[in-house]
Amino acid sequence: MALEDLKALIPDYAKDIKLNLSALSREQGLSQQQLYGTLLACALASSNATLIRHLHEEAAAKLSDEAINAAKAAASIMAMNNIYYRFVHLSSHADYKTMPAKLRMNVIGNPGIDKVDFELYSLAVSAINGCGMCIDSHEAVLRKGGLSAEAIQTAVRIAAIVHAVARTLDGEEALA
Fold it and tell me: What is the pTM of this model?
């Protein structure tokens, strides 16, 4: 029901976004935990309160408390890591690449759910946040963990659609 309510908020000019969002609920390439955890992590990364509320409600009906916490943790830790590692990647000074980050990231080692699922959430959030270094790192772990290129692409497609919904809702809320 939450997903249907969310789709009703998307204006006619963004019909393609609405159709893409509708198609996600029929996605076959990911487990339910991967799909709904990625949706929630991406909603949190996209920062639109309306989107977060609707996708949290949708995810809560499908995920364990541990998976919901892991999606929240992925969005949170990647908010920090994506800024730091994007800087390291974009800086023209090589010194930063050899310096320790000095950032606590314990949740990555112990996310409370299957590591591959947490890495998938983290990859999708990293795509939203535009961190190439993090994208490469998470994609390598996912491939090593047995995820196919199609499954990884699906997570990034989720990120793109969720982010587009967030920006559309932001625009509509600003104009209201």
Answer: 0.95
